């Protein structure tokens, strides 16, 4: 019992460290964005707008109340990019990297916190994994920026093109969705590049690379093309990610963009299937989609990316566990399996609880915003799904929302970034019990 209590205390402390780290960076970022030097006009930004922007950046969401390109100065954009990088890589990853560089010893508590932050299977080798995360992040972002540079340098000049390339590469890999193309038309995202092959391919590749998780990248590094040697989690991530890109792309191609030229139709269909999980860029006007199309995007936003990645949402593995569990029930099988491996019952319970919490917060937040702002429920739900999924896609209502709605979105963005940790390490501790003080009695479900 004493050991169990210590374990629970360790988990709670780890969650508190991560949450306080995010809160501290958000508050510091808010204060910096409030400075006159952070805006192009030289005016001070209100605390709520600065807080909303900082939260969106640290939680790698992309919802904004002010257009990033036209409102914020180079200093302000730099602060936003730094917050995105910290939020994408993780507060704990940055802290441990600094400790390693400074020669400080990494204690068991720090290793445990890092394990939980990146969803690592064990504490062992956690410092090595941290170094790998730093290296792979920098490498991919530099490659992405280099590939984007020819297009942006051509369109915006050399130095601005370099800055735009770096900004969008980091924003895409961190699944943040912040963009600087609003210099042409505010809040336009990447709609001007809807048929540009390089921008489409690079941004989509960066989104997927950041969304599959650092442990999956470790499998790629260690086992290359030997897929059978990958962890079961990596196999599930690849399978679910592929399906969630291919199937929605088919729907968008045949039902949403059937009236556009074939080349553009292919690009926008594929891009709109990738970006909801959970990047926030868009190359098409989402307000023109049918309600079915918008609902599909809402579902994709809620699912999100994969564990230990820069993406948010419920995670692809949560969806896979729930679907596999349901199939096991349909087939009257006692256990849930993936690739010849049994899924523990505790994992299934965690997945079901995460799903329920996301759905409840998404629905309640949407209903409150719809009632408060007197807007259609579907529009409000799109916004709350984007916030809790840390996506950043919007139907254009975010800047015009009131105080209450903005606070709701801020809370949803924060929960969406640390929500899994909230559940697993604060609500459902790893307490193991051999029995219960309550007698068992069956209850009929379904």
Automatic annotation (TrEMBL):
<keyword id="KW-0813">Transport</keyword>
<feature type="transmembrane region" description="Helical">
    <location>
        <begin position="198"/>
        <end position="215"/>
    </location>
</feature>
<keyword id="KW-1003">Cell membrane</keyword>
<feature type="transmembrane region" description="Helical">
    <location>
        <begin position="47"/>
        <end position="65"/>
    </location>
</feature>
<keyword id="KW-1133">Transmembrane helix</keyword>
<feature type="transmembrane region" description="Helical">
    <location>
        <begin position="377"/>
        <end position="397"/>
    </location>
</feature>
<feature type="transmembrane region" description="Helical">
    <location>
        <begin position="15"/>
        <end position="35"/>
    </location>
</feature>
<keyword id="KW-0406">Ion transport</keyword>
<feature type="transmembrane region" description="Helical">
    <location>
        <begin position="350"/>
        <end position="370"/>
    </location>
</feature>
<keyword id="KW-0472">Membrane</keyword>
<protein>
    <submittedName>
        <fullName>Trk family potassium uptake protein</fullName>
    </submittedName>
</protein>
<feature type="transmembrane region" description="Helical">
    <location>
        <begin position="71"/>
        <end position="101"/>
    </location>
</feature>
<feature type="transmembrane region" description="Helical">
    <location>
        <begin position="132"/>
        <end position="152"/>
    </location>
</feature>
<dbReference type="InterPro" id="IPR003445">
    <property type="entry name" value="Cat_transpt"/>
</dbReference>
<feature type="transmembrane region" description="Helical">
    <location>
        <begin position="236"/>
        <end position="255"/>
    </location>
</feature>
<dbReference type="Pfam" id="PF02386">
    <property type="entry name" value="TrkH"/>
</dbReference>
<keyword id="KW-0812">Transmembrane</keyword>
<feature type="transmembrane region" description="Helical">
    <location>
        <begin position="403"/>
        <end position="428"/>
    </location>
</feature>
<feature type="transmembrane region" description="Helical">
    <location>
        <begin position="312"/>
        <end position="330"/>
    </location>
</feature>
